From TrEMBL:
PROSITE patterns reported in the protein's UniProt record: SPOR (PS51724)
Keywords, comma-separated and alphabetical: Membrane, Transmembrane, Transmembrane helix
Record-given protein name: SPOR domain-containing protein
Domain SPOR: start-end pairs: 96-175
InterPro entries: Cell_div_SPOR-domain (IPR052521), SPOR-like_dom (IPR007730), SPOR-like_sf (IPR036680)
GO terms of molecular function: peptidoglycan binding
Pfam families: SPOR
Organism: Rheinheimera mesophila
The keyword Transmembrane is assigned to this record: yes
Length: 176
């Protein structure tokens, strides 16, 4: 069965076009505006060419005033410049205590195979680690540790690098 277009069926047939041409009116306001602008521009250029040049006798008087500088003061009114040249500052420096070596713990596991897998992931990231056996109340655990680090800043740097590489989320603690 052929398809029917029910939308076109409800519309009336289009009317045939007539051969009448519509005449657009001439844009007189545009022509007048452009003409006024052109005439104004020509008048402006003519007006500029008729101006007399500035006399050279007036110009040196103006430049002479610009070149004059105020006289220098006889004595410096401020004393701090001389004081700062010869001043010596004493600073007390307190030594920071070394908080000891730091260790980074990257996981605690019951099975040694799982701890070895974590150690391999950390090694592929470029850090040496070791698996330590820990005896606790609930049995034997295996902990993956990195370090010791001399400063906490070094440990934080390695921790953030391991997190960026999505190897492990580690925590930092004192070794003592």
């Amino acid at each position: 069965m052929p398809q029917r277009d029910y939308v076109k069926a409800g519309r009336a047939a289009p009317r045939p076009k007539k051969n009448t041409k519509t005449v657009k009116p001439f844009p007189w306001p545009l022509v007048i505006t452009v003409g006024v602008l052109v005439i104004g521009f020509v008048w402006f250029l003519y007006h500029l060419s008729q101006k007399t040049p500035v006399d050279d006798a007036v110009t040196p008087a103006i430049t002479a005033k610009k070149d004059e500088l105020p006289p220098k003061p006889a004595a410096e009114p401020y004393q701090y410049i001389k004081e700062l040249e010869n001043k010596e500052i004493q600073v007390q420096v307190e030594e920071l205590e070394a908080k000891g070596p730091f260790l980074m713990f990257c996981g605690t596991y019951r099975a040694i195979e799982t701890a070895q897998q974590m150690k391999a992931k950390v090694a592929f990231a470029g850090y040496p680690s070791e698996v330590r056996r820990i005896e606790g109340k609930n049995g034997v655990f295996f902990r993956v540790t990195l370090g010791p680090y001399s400063s906490k800043r070094q440990a934080e740097s390695d921790k953030s690098r391991l997190m960026r590489q999505r190897v492990a989320e580690c925590r930092i603690a004192n070794a003592t």
